[in-house]
Model the fold of this input.
Amino acid sequence: MLRLKSVKIDTYPDNVAFLARHCEACRPEEFLALRKIDVIAGDKRIQASLLIVDDENMVGLKELGLSEQAFRRLGLAEGAKVSIAPSRQPRSLEHLRSKIHGAALNREQITMIINDIVNHRYSEKEIAAFLVSSAGFMTTDEMLALTEAMANVGHRLTWGEPNIVDKHCVGGVPGNRTSMIVVPIVAAHGLIIPKTSSRAITSSAGTADTMEVLSRVDLTVEEMQDVVKRCNGCIVWGGHVGLSPVDDILISVERPLSINTREQMVASIMSKKMSAGSTHLLIDIPVGRYAKVSSLDSAMRLRKLFEFVGDKVGVHVEVTVTDGSQPIGQGIGPVLEARDVMAVLACQPNAPLDLREKSLQIAGALLETDPDLRGGSGYDRAKELLDSGDALSSMERIIKYQGKVDTPYTLGTLTKDVLAPRRGTVSAIDCFRISRLARLAGAPFEKGAGIDLFKKIGDTVASGEPLYRIYANFQSDYAFASEFAAKDNGYHLE
Done:
């Protein structure tokens, strides 16, 4: 028996155990062949990767250390008695090896893999192997099985209403924070819209990152349900309410590898919407030269995949293809994007018109699902709710009941204006490069970091006129972003 010790090391998503090299209770060499052990205490058991420690101040001779995640998942107090045993390899690894060699997996095999991932039986390397092999080849049947398996391992919410609406953008366009405008418009009309959002994967901010500037997003399921009951809608981080929890594990591995294939994207989005209890879903696919989806042909293929899965799982899916040629709004980064959102909701004269118009179009399409609303009047109703201030009041209620942020976030104190190298007209903006630049400046982890755009496509600029301003909080981030912008500012002039 060993005494449990919490080792303050973040090893997400892996469980990691630490054993002293000269442990008095067992010989670590016995467990090194497979590198994994089971940690056991009564009916509690977790699997963990094993690391050997030479510093006895970190883990004593009669102790077993667990990383922060593993300690929390086991759910015992420090000093509790635990035993260890060599782990058996998950049976699903056989199916993973088949996938690596190009085989198509069936529903049962994919379900086994997903169950083992969500129960933390896979290392980060094994998860990466599954993602990379799936990115190389995945059938539509595999995609459907993956979607359903991901949805089935977490909470499945029900709302007791026949019409639960939602929207999702596939991403690739910086500043595209339409959800934070659409949700309060739709909720003000009376439709139920429980919006669960992801944090940024490769972008400079996700909806959850930006909403966190205004209110809590890490609500429990019960808190989320209470907010929806009071406000008809919410804007929360899906990872915290346990909806398709395996998706957040996969995203944590996808992010550094920049994996974002069509099939995995569809499985990720649809599994979360199924878990959230959505009955009607609008998918926004921005298309542009520098967007995630670069051609109409690619957009149509993606649309067919969403419709295929929607038909199979009983979710009515409508897909809209929108302009992804340039960033939406002016701000790129959580604080700047939240500023743009609230400006649109407050109908301020300086509010970004492109963000306002796109939000109205999407909200109008969702309102058309209301059987009591006359066909074709969704857009006018959305505009009425926005212009009257009802949408702003709806957002203020959502912020209140989710938990308003006590201390407002502020913009980064280190700034740099990026200037036009010559006179001309803006003919294109590289969305990928602008997003990468905002991330180098610190977004979304630093809420006040990002980029404030001064010029859009079609605008004329003089030599030396500012194109945008970089905000950062740390000198290293400021230097990285400044150097990146100096090599290529992301703007094309004619």
User: Anything to note?
Assistant: The first strand starts at residue 2 and ends at 6. The chain has a mean pLDDT of 93. The domain at 165-244+257-402 is CATH 3.40.1030.10 (Pyrimidine Nucleoside Phosphorylase; Chain A, domain 2).
